[in-house]
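Database export, one record per block. Field names are fixed; values are copied verbatim from the stored entry.
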Amino acid sequence: MSLKSTVLLPLLSLFAAMMIACAPAEPELAENLPLPGSDRDEHGCIPSAGYVWSEEKQKCVRPWEEEAELNADEPGEEEIREYGRVVSFEDGIYPIFNITLEFPERGMRQSFFFNVMEVGVEESILAGLVDQFITIHYTSEMEPALIDMLLDGVSLVDDAFEVDDAKTMTGVLSGADAPTMSDLPGSFLIKEADGSETRFEYYIPDAMAAANGKTVNITYVSQTRNEIIRIIPSDD
């Protein structure tokens, strides 16, 4: 064997060994890979999908989804959360509904109103909530409620009535540019001589719109406005 062959053969062997070492590993056969969902624990939960067992709910849950749901159930900064039984509900001028809740622990009932398009519950479900317990988020504030409006002694509203402890004010009517045409009430302002302004929510009739910009006499009461922002049916 020549000197050249003696040197070349070891080099070829070394090169072949290096190529084998650098070659990519063959992909694992599909039959050797775990099937999706095959890593179930003793409760049937799939850890690889993020599921763990909840003793409280007795089912598999994803913790981050549970936390997001819990945060969604928290009332807003100016909202109040209550839990009570639905005594009755009735539709007003769509989409406004009125609902009465009973709070057994306090031995009291309270009426609320809500916009069915905003509370997170479909209208078709409402009838089934009677005698059921629900959680509500609502706001409560005092607001003036119009009893009557007079222009030169003539009433501008169709449903004026008398109440005890009514208050009065005199001022310039503004904001009643046109009769209310939507299902939701409009609003107007009364500006008194001292510059103070009071806003009323009301379905503005033709006679009131015609008096816009004129000085009128108002009779009103202060009442509590309880508006439900969200309804959460009970899981029980």
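Remark 1: The domain at 71-141+227-233 is CATH 2.40.50 (OB fold (Dihydrolipoamide Acetyltransferase, E2P)).
Remark 2: The radius of gyration is 36 Å.
End of record.
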